[in-house]
Here is the input.
Amino acid sequence: MRAMVFSEPGGPEVLSLAEVERPLRLNAEVLVRVVAAGVNPIDVKTRAGRGAFAGIRDFPAVLGGDVSGVVVEAPYEAHPLQPGVEVFGMGMVPRLSGGYAEYVSLPQSALTPKPESLDHVEAAAVPLAALTAWGMVVDVADVQAGQRVLVHAGAGGVGHFAVQFSALAGAHVITTASPRNADWLAELGAAEVIDYTATPFEEATGDIDVVIDLLGDVADDAGSRSLRVLRPGGLIVNAPTGSWPTMAADAAAAGMRATGYRVSPDGRTLAEIGRLIDAGQVRVHVDRVFDLADAAEAHRAIETGHTRGKLVLRVSEG
Here is the structure.
């Protein structure tokens, strides 16, 4: 099968298109022909030798947690995901080979039927970002109606879902973004959009119950500064790997609660998100679509930090 691979850490140029062995489906796994694959910041970090790079045991390695495609082989005859069923989901890369390839074999629990209202490109933009946002907003923070929630980087892949899930819960959602994304984020449910290019967010808001931190201290110490806007005992949930090493100590010193978050595949939650999408209550935004052969360009684009929503690779015809 064709796959975009890399054999050593480095810049986007280490990615190359190659012919590799098709994955073998085992036990309760489902073999999927990939139509589209999402591109995420963790892919970029891992390719560069950070992120999940330490977990790679064999090279060449294939990145890509998000997939949308068509079932080729089911685990057994009575399984609901039979050949021909359109599915989407995410895998634990690099424990398993990723979606930058024509085929993946994933645990049945990681997949669910694709939302009918989405094509494969749109569906591939959902799993990792939406599950991360759901885990932070719903599972960890348990955001409630009337709470004030600050979402950093609301226009990004995880951010635009976090804004929507918080708004669906009835929260007053505040987010940081560039001016070009303000109107769009308001459409998604943000009550306030703070222009981070003009105003320090700590000067524009306060009395926050929950901070959904998608920046950490990598960008202008946004994580540390967030502690200043939380109510006493407020919660900050941080996702980007390695973005704020001193978070626990900093939060404790300020009298706040803090936790990291790491997403895991969850087909049942993804099915619930899919129902919200089909009902028109949640939207996914695809910023740009690249051919599989142009994965390096997709990595360069995501490294700019200025994408709206998600970037997606088109792997094959639907």
